[in-house]
Amino acid sequence: MLNKETIATEFMMLQDSICQSLEEIDGSGRFKEDLWQREEGGGGRSRILEGGKLFEKAGVNFSKVFGNTPAFLYDTKQNINPESQFFATGVSIVIHPINPWVPIIHMNIRYFEKDAGACWFGGGIDLTPHYVIPKDAIYFHGELRKVCNKHPLADYVKYKKEADDYFYIPHRNETRGIGGIFFDHLIPADQTEKNVLFNFVLDVGKLFAPLYIEIVSRNKDRLYTSEEKKWQRIRRGRYVEFNLVYDRGTKFGLETNGRTESILMSLPPQADWQYNFIPATGTKESESLNFLKKGIDWLK
Amino acid sequence: MLNKETIATEFMMLQDSICQSLEEIDGSGRFKEDLWQREEGGGGRSRILEGGKLFEKAGVNFSKVFGNTPAFLYDTKQNINPESQFFATGVSIVIHPINPWVPIIHMNIRYFEKDAGACWFGGGIDLTPHYVIPKDAIYFHGELRKVCNKHPLADYVKYKKEADDYFYIPHRNETRGIGGIFFDHLIPADQTEKNVLFNFVLDVGKLFAPLYIEIVSRNKDRLYTSEEKKWQRIRRGRYVEFNLVYDRGTKFGLETNGRTESILMSLPPQADWQYNFIPATGTKESESLNFLKKGIDWLK
Predict the structure, then answer these.
(1) Architecture of A4-290 per CATH?
(2) How far apart are CA A14 and CA A7, in angstroms?
């Protein structure tokens, strides 16, 4: 029977293997590890690589926390049960590359359990190119569809739409990037389904390194100008806006007294805000903006 | 009798005079103006100076908006009255200087009116030094106390505490800067009090330019290193965190479909996030951090 400790162990091993793959492709940067403990139960392994040859800042975090179920996890105050216990484990990744032609990427997989029985999985991968390269976007979404199609309970079309809706910045009327897949509260009906969902989630996690490394490899040697680097910093500013204003994981972490430096590892090494910066029509910056909208079907 | 149009006109004139003073001290940068209109009624004058000799980015905004009272301005849904009208006008300033020894400053004054009669004033000034210089902090708070003491209904001690409480970043356990004064919902009991409160708020607005220019003048010619410039970008990152996660004005603006570029003019031209950056004990960076807490009485 699949239990929570097995899931946490698999997530830790995934963190190990992803860090190794990223160090290999980077060729120079090394992850630094911080172990942290949560007073109320559990803790995590934060791993950050800064100043690599390819990656300016890469965070690959694992956490396993448990204890009394915090009040905010209840729908209503009436339902609060002081005896209730929760358990949550996950892997969370954000990578900010140096080269503006290499996209930012985010991946997260998580498992949650409350008391005896109630449990669910969540996660996703989404890509945030500073410059949208359609053939890379097609490749990216194609791989995500493949991993969904391999698993009977997964649904690419649904998760792709959820990513479009989730990674959206209303005050800019822009999506954060070209989306990907996003899923939450995947509740197994029985032990068999629990195994099926776990295998799916773990496959999403295992897809991450080869998928990103392929996209990195395609673009890492591309020359870039200081103007392109500046555009990257403007786009990173949008990433900050999304993460601090809208991202549920970030809000959840900050509001529940999580480890701030682990939560905010997602923020870029450097970001710019220039007043009312609008790229001229027909430029590659402007063309990239045209791809930052919901509902683009890259696989049609 | 003091009416809303008089208040708005005075606020506009204040914006003019502040922009003029800031251009004078900068000596090179010029404000660019954007006029904008709000579909539901009213609009504003956004003025931004970028790339000055002293100021990297300075925003001095005026707005006057009115129309049907939006639903979020009611305490409860039961009280919503579709006939109700509101009127709001204000001046809002954030300045990010080039020199890390010159502090960031923020000032805001505002007037709000609902239907016939109900009205209030709000506002404040707070200072965010990258490096806290005690004698400047004492001067700053001294001037704020003076302006409060000149006005019978103002209370420096109360407003200073409100600034400490408001400009606070819980997930960092740091105040944004050395505080200042903050006040909201100053409701006049009658026309006489309305005049008294307006004179106070306008005096706060008029204090802004000479107060900041004095602090700028004291520090603008100080030489700085690239390390100090880097520390400035780290502190600007905290400014971003406060404004995007906690600032009520920013949230209010973004949630109510305000003009995004005017709201986010407060964000710095450039900000850094370095993982777990903690200055060594005894450095001037570490000493500055020690001043970023609530309840420091600079005037004792």
Answers:
(1) 3-Layer(aba) Sandwich (3.40)
(2) 11
